[in-house]
Amino acid sequence: MKSYDVAIIGSGPGGYVAAIRCAQLGMKTAIIEKYSTLGGTCLNVGCIPSKALLSSSHHYEEATKHFEEHGIEIPGDIKVNLEKMIGRKQAVVDQTTGGIDFLMKKNNIDVFEGLGSFKDATHITIEGKDAQEIEAKKIIIATGSKPSTLPFITLDKERVITSTEALKLKEIPKHMIIIGGGVIGLELGQVYRRLGAEVTVIEYMDRILPTMDAGLSKELNKVFKKAKCNMMLSHKVQSVERHGDEVIVKAENKKGEVVEFKGDYCLVSVGRKPYTAGLNAEAAGVKLNDKGQVEVNEHLQTSASNIYAIGDVIKGAMLAHKAEEEGVFVAETMAGQKPHIDYNLIPGVVYTWPEVAAVGKTEDQLKADNVEYKVGQFPFRALGRARASGDIDGFVKILADKTTDEVLGVHMIGARCADLIAEAVVAMEFRASAEDISRMSHAHPTFAEAVKEAALAATEDRALHV
Ligand code: FAD
Ligand code: NAD
């Protein structure tokens, strides 16, 4: 029987990053993945394929709607070849997952293909291609998550689908009904709207992206409405029925009336749930909580002291970079180091266009915590760079402590915000004040100048260009 210092179950961004860090720290490491490709949800059916389709559909929108204003004329019709677009997405996925194979080899990590389940706290049975039993002194559970649904919905995966199927459709829907105005619904909704589908987003709460700062939800909702998406807020879905190629969704509005929507596809994107099926966690003494998450302490250690858990399968934001931080954290903890994760500084990004990004506290959270704060906001339309490229929607908002000027939250919507948010994370990691950011030189002309201007606005209402 092969024996390891550490074995990791699941090869998503949590698991494979943990494996690399364990190997770097000198541990003999194994990783077990039930699918034939490494990379988990993120690389195979999540972050990477969705961003590939967002990029392709963005190019199409630019070509059909914005090239002309730049003086670019394309003779004849511009058409979408969906098969080719999906093919390119798959090529990007294959290249990326292949990169993980390389990293595993480079770091001398043994990869086992098969379902890993606990025999006891130090033995894992692998069923599948590499069937065998292995032994490990320490084990990391990184089994991730799967899409959740509503109890009355039958996901047939043809017409009533999750994000996994929406990433490989064979036709552009005529009318895609999306249940849930969260990250998946909006990213994939935007993809298919750009490609020509009618899109209806049905959201239970009174705003899309309900966990983000309300200002961002409002601005993105405007963008979706401008693109002629039907944004049905405060609607509670009651039933989803498929009749042949038609899907009928019924939802109750605020007045108690039942509204009916007819489409050819229904994307169910109401969140994801932790995945532990087949893991046989009880055999190792690993406890789950009432949400089905693996219960962990502040060291991400489970109820079995040699077993840790990370990523989507434990509490917290279901984000690839959160899983990665936790992978490194656990590897370093096992090696006797004292790592730290500031969960308040894990940024959240929505890759629509304009992009939405945030870090730290929202205005609602600061109000609930009775923190006195000031707001500095700057619109992208006032920037030369934004006008030059034609991306003028959105703003940067900085929330700073009223007394100390420390930056407490940064919320932005606009072009390239997914990358701009990194400046806010760095500033907050070093506990910068709004004035600190405002006194740093930002290259001109850039989108990043909006961050400096918002900081100036927060400091003393001193923005220069509004
Ligand atoms: P996962 O990536 O889910 O990996 C878990 C792995 O464990 C899987 O490969 C699974 O097959 C394997 N596994 C499970 N049980 C076993 C077992 N018993 N034996 C062997 N193997 C097992 N996050 C972002 O930060 N940015 C984004 O842009 C983004 N976009 C997304 C888009 C979509 C459409 C979706 C669905 C998700 C997106 N996410 C994004 C979320 C992100 O994918 C997850 O947060 C991330 O993948 C979690 O990583 P993980 O390692 O915890 O688990
Ligand atoms: P989500 O939690 O982001 O959004 C779910 C939405 O569905 C919420 O707005 C919620 O109010 C709504 N909802 C719930 N029940 C409903 C009902 N009965 N009727 C109508 N609306 C209802 O979940 P998601 O979009 O499915 O994404 C799942 C996870 O994947 C998220 O945790 C997210 O962090 C992650 N993800 C991240 C990214 C990214 O980082 N860019 C992209 C995609 C997915």
Automatic annotation (TrEMBL):
Disulfide bonds join 42-47. GO terms for molecular function: dihydrolipoyl dehydrogenase (NADH) activity; flavin adenine dinucleotide binding. It catalyses: N(6)-[(R)-dihydrolipoyl]-L-lysyl-[protein] + NAD(+) = N(6)-[(R)-lipoyl]-L-lysyl-[protein] + NADH + H(+). The active site is at residue 444. Its EC number is 1.8.1.4. Its cofactor is FAD. NAD(+) binds at residues 180-187, 203, 271. Keywords: Disulfide bond, FAD, Flavoprotein, NAD, Nucleotide-binding, Oxidoreductase, Redox-active center. PANTHER family: DIHYDROLIPOYL DEHYDROGENASE, MITOCHONDRIAL, DISULFIDE OXIDOREDUCTASE. FAD binds at residues 51, 116, 143-145, 312, 318-321. Pfam families: Pyr_redox_2, Pyr_redox_dim. The active site is a redox-active disulfide bond. This is Dihydrolipoyl dehydrogenase. GO terms for cellular component: cytoplasm. The keyword Disulfide bond applies.
